[in-house]
């Protein structure tokens, strides 16, 4: 729903159901033109008055070079657009900027200029007094002057450069210039105090301690080499490795020999279980049969050979088979041979006795082989221990060399610090610092604040936009009845007649 002006009868607004149009907006602006004009003039007047009543602020600028080593340097290199600074150099520049903005440096500048100079009203020329003419002030006033100085101080550094740009804004151009000059001098003095390096007893003592540690490490390394013959250490290590390899081969053979003796003992023990220590013997009481006796003796010899052969050769070997065939033939011949009268008697079993002797001999050989294996293992253990000792000695040697290297590095660093401190002490006595004034503080009588043109233009824009916005808000919230349609819609009553305001005034 929107509203448009009425006709000449001054019934101003007719409500319609169509959307708000440009014509409606222009009608609203026309109806409230005096309100817009009043708001516009008020805003512009207030901003203009405030702008012209604001105190003028002047700026003094300077450029410093901070953090370069105190050596003669070409000014073109210092003023280069970009310099490849490392992290330490960047931190040195940042630390210098922090010192410049410290309250200590600002306080020294305030003490030189005088705290009262910062509280003089605009339009009054500052009095640049001599140090003896400066009157003492309270602590609160001095701190207030420091706050004023720091609030107008601005520092910025160029990327990857030693150059620092300084800006100081104050209400008087000459005071800004003199304050910035004094501030730079106070910072230079403070920088000298912080960077003052004297060849003090501390540096000399550190150098002496580093030299003593270096001598101790060198002596320890020398004694170690003499004690363990470090020159022959590598040769000893090679010889021990060769001996260890030979012992490994001999231990392998000895283990195989011990295993063979163990298997043979087990085989003899199994064979021995088949025979008893004693056996039954036959005694002829009748007519003797010499042929049978010879066969028995031959059979006994063959069985003895069979036992010995089976203990040394497998059962399927040719030699064992031949002996078994001979035994079978002798037994077959004895079976057909007539016997005589015999008497039974017991005696030593020769087979058992021979097997027992072989078993004892084999056990003795097994013990000898096992003892040899233990000796070889003991020798190998000794060699491995010596190798371990050599490895430990090598590690100790490396540690001693590393300690000597660190001690030597520390000694040279302390020596360099001592030399640098002596050089810096000479530079300090000559007044040479790493702070250089590239551009001194400037004196400019052109104020940087307030910007009158900008403020007035902003006031005009704000007045127009604010006035237009206010009248649209007023029109939006205006719920008065100005037309017959308003009466019909809101009161639900018919309109009998309409009288314009002019006619109504004439009737009165």
Task: Estimate what percentage of residues fall within beta strands.
Answer: 5-15%
Please give the count of helices: 15
What would the principal axes of the Cα set say about the shape?
Answer: elongated
Mean pLDDT: 77
- By helix and strand content, what is the structural category? alpha+beta
Element-level helix/strand string? EEHHEHHHHEEHHHEHHEHEHHH
Q: Using DSSP, what is the number of strands?
A: 8
Number of domains: 4
Largest sheet: 4 strands, antiparallel
Work out the radius of gyration.
Answer: 61 Å
Share of helix among residues? 55-70%
Please give the order of strands in the largest beta sheet: 4-5-3-8
Instruction: Note poorly predicted spans.
Output: 1-18, 70-79
First-residue to last-residue Cα separation:
35 Å
Describe this structure in words.
α5 (103-113) packs across α7 (173-195) and α10 runs parallel beside α12. The protein has helices spanning 22-31, 33-53, 75-78, 87-100, 103-113, 139-151, 173-195, 201-228, 233-272, 290-312, 318-336, 350-430, 452-477, 484-491, 501-507, and strands at residues 2-4, 14-16, 58-66, 153-157, 163-170, 278-284, 342-348, 435-439. The protein folds into four domains: 2-54 and 468-507, no CATH class; 58-195; 209-248 and 386-419; 251-380, no CATH class. The chain is built from 15 helices and eight strands. With 508 residues, the protein is of the alpha+beta class. The strands form three sheets. The protein has a four-stranded antiparallel β-sheet. Strands 1-2 form a two-stranded antiparallel sheet. It starts with a strand and ends with a helix.
């Amino acid at each position: 729903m929107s509203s448009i002006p009425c006709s000449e009868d001054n019934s101003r607004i007719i409500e319609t159901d169509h959307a708000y149009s440009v014509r409606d907006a222009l009608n609203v602006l026309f109806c409230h033109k005096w309100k817009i004009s009043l708001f516009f003039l008020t805003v512009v007047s207030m901003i203009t008055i405030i702008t012209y009543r604001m105190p003028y602020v002047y700026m003094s600028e300077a450029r410093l070079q901070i953090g370069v080593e105190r050596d003669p340097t070409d000014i073109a290199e210092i003023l280069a657009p970009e310099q490849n600074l490392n992290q330490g150099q960047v931190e040195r520049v940042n630390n210098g900027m922090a010192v410049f903005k410290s309250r200590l440096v600002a306080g020294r500048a305030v003490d030189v200029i005088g705290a009262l100079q910062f509280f003089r009203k605009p339009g009054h020329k500052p009095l640049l007094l001599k140090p003896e003419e400066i009157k003492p002030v309270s602590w609160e006033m001095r701190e207030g002057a420091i706050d004023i100085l720091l609030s107008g101080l601005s520092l910025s550094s160029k990327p990857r450069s030693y150059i620092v740009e300084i800006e100081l804004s104050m209400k008087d151009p000459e005071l800004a210039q003199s304050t910035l000059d004094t501030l730079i001098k106070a910072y230079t003095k403070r920088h000298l105090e912080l960077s003052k390096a004297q060849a003090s007893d501390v540096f000399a003592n550190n150098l002496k301690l580093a030299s003593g540690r270096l001598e101790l490490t060198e002596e320890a390394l020398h004694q170690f080499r003499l004690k363990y013959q470090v020159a022959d250490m590598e040769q000893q290590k090679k010889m021990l490795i060769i001996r260890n390899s030979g012992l490994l081969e001999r231990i392998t053979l000895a283990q195989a020999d011990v295993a063979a003796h163990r298997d043979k003992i087990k085989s003899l023990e199994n064979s021995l279980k088949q025979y008893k220590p004693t056996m039954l013997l036959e005694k002829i009481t009748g007519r003797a049969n010499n042929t049978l006796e010879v066969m028995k003796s031959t059979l006994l010899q063959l069985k003895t050979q069979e036992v010995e052969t089976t203990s040394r050769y497998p059962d399927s070997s040719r030699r064992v088979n031949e002996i078994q065939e001979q035994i079978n033939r002798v037994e077959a011949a004895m079976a057909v041979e007539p016997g005589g009268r015999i008497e039974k008697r017991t005696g030593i079993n020769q087979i058992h006795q021979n097997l027992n002797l072989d078993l004892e001999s084999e056990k003795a050989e097994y013990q000898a082989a096992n003892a040899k294996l233990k000796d070889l293992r003991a020798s190998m253990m000794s060699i491995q221990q010596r190798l371990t000792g050599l490895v430990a000695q090598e590690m100790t040697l490396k540690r001693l060399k590393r300690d000597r290297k660190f001690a030597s590095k520390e000694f040279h660093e302390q020596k360099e610090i001592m030399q640098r401190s002596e050089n810096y002490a000479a530079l300090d006595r000559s007044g040479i610092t790493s702070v250089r004034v590239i551009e001194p503080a400037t004196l400019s009588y052109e104020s940087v604040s307030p910007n009158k043109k900008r403020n007035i233009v902003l006031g005009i824009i704000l007045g127009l936009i604010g006035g237009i916005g206010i009248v649209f808000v007023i029109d939006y919230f205006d719920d008065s009845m100005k037309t017959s349609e308003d009466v019909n819609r809101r009161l639900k009553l018919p309109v009998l007649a309409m009288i314009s305001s002019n006619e109504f005034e004439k009737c009165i």
